[in-house]
Amino acid sequence: MSRRLAVPKTYKLAIGGAFPRSESGRTYEVVSPKGAFLANAAKGSRKDARDAVVAARAAVKGWSGATAYNRGQVLYRVAEVLEGRRAQFIDEIVAQEGGSTGAAQAQVDAAIDLWVWYAGWCDKYAQVAGNANPVAGPYFNISVPEPTGVVAIIAPQDSALLGLVSVVAPALVPGNTVVVVASERHPLSAISLAEVLATSDLPGGVVNVLTGSPAEIAPWLASHQDVNALDLAGAGELDWIDLQVAAADTLKRVLAPGEVIASPERINAFTEVKTVWHTKSVL
Length: 283
Hints:
It contains 10 helices and 10 strands. By secondary structure, it is α/β, with parallel strands linked by helices. Helix 1 crosses helix 8 (214-223), helix 3 packs across helix 4 and helix 4 packs parallel to helix 6 (162-172).
């Protein structure tokens, strides 16, 4: 019996629900901690970043217009599909990070649990972040949080999966769409996660994943006029002050580098508060 040739996986970008190669045609080698070749990853360009922002902007209306209950269902479905591909992600993380199988299992399980946790917040965060304001007069004054729009994210660079999920999931809860630059050293799980998202009822363009150099891509996202917010969670090794300055020119919300923990505050970071006044009926 003849032996079949292996079919190596091709890791591309994830833009608008499709998986294109970089328009530049560039790739770079992803290697294990010991220097063994793992795969070629697409090296995203300025044009890829612009295409991702266009896709994210087109998806804002549909995703933000979905009910909170529906968004929660979709995020929970992501957890279900990720659970079904658990073994694949464990193998990828071991190969990329070089740790033990047990550590990789813990990372995948924590990522799955995080999707479930944020799914539960979709129809609850508004009650926590919003409020009815006390006023002196015959009217109601109610403040409600709304999504800010397109959020560009530099994912944590030391984590193949959990860091990525920790920054993407909370941005999706209120109805934002995302352009995320994955870990440069550990990009493979990011594209595999994009495949999970594409089969989890998440509309195309809601999450767009770029691989390559954050130092090259981040300045274009920070200065892009159609990006509404910037999460610099994984930009600690970059000149992130310059990124903040570039973002300020277009009045973006900016979250500086720091510890990423599961918290409703990461949801609130990328919301706008709308206050509505309504008169009381006088009998």
